[in-house]
Amino acid sequence: MTNAPEAPRDCPLCPRLVAYRRDNATAHPTWFNGAVPSFGDEKARLLIVGLAPGVTGANRTGRPFTGDFAGDLLYATLNEFGLSRGTFDARPDDGLTLCDTMITNAVRCVPPQNKPTPLEAKTCQPFLVNRIKALPNIKAVLALGRIAHDSVLNTFGLRKALYPFGHQAAHDIAPGLILFDSYHCSRYNTNTGRLTPDMFRAVFSDIQRYLESQK
């Protein structure tokens, strides 16, 4: 299982997350209620890493950033930069496809209060390691928030003190691979003004310029 880029839907590795999934399945049996798989282009040069599925978002729909506010901003921005085709309608069957981009999460199962523990992030780490390895053309990783940033650094065995998280920061983490940082596109961050749509677009503008330079 640890050689796979995706966790099985009924992943048993984190007892607290398993119990929470089961509670949600009891309360909402029609929801996805499992480890959420990555979504996007298997030949992607850009991998976007979020924190974890939201309980009424990806945990409900089974697709990253689908069904909650964070996805509204993320997918609108992807469309603006030509990184998606079709219309995002917050449903996994809306026909949307991603271009040169894949989206995943540092922790694949929904955590209570949207807060995975450090042990849960570490336990889920092999799936991120193998997801990155399975993308033959990867050139850029976008970390949405500090936990995603730290998970990517852990994937490459890098010291966090040498690669500090910061909105619109960029870090060379391996030959031909840059880690870009953004504040998470959560409702809380956008409502408080910590992240504005223009700030989010600025990060994607940096990524776009970099990817164009790598053609």
List the helices and strands and how they pair.
Blueprint: H1 15-27, E1 39-40, E2 46-50, H2 58-61, H3 69-80, E3 84-85, E4 97-98, E5 101-105, H4 118-133, E6 140-144, H5 146-155, E7 170-174, E8 177-182, H6 187-191, H7 197-213
Parallel strand pairs: 2-5, 2-6, 6-8
Antiparallel strand pairs: 1-5, 3-4, 7-8
Helix pairs in contact: 4-5
Structural description of this entry:
This protein has 215 residues and is an alpha/beta fold. It has a single domain (15-213), classed as Uracil-DNA Glycosylase, subunit E, CATH 3.40.470.10. The chain is 36% helix and 15% strand. It has 7 helices and 8 strands, in the order αββααβββαβαββαα. The protein has helices at 15-27, 58-61, 69-80, 118-133, 146-155, 187-191, 197-213, and strands at residues 39-40, 46-50, 84-85, 97-98, 101-105, 140-144, 170-174, 177-182. A 6-stranded mixed beta sheet has the order 1-5-2-6-8-7, sandwiched between helices. A two-stranded antiparallel sheet has the order 3-4. A hairpin with a 2-residue loop joins strand 7 and strand 8. Helix 4 crosses helix 5 (146-155). The longest helix has 17 residues, at 197-213. The radius of gyration is 16 Å and the shape is globular. The relative contact order is 0.16.
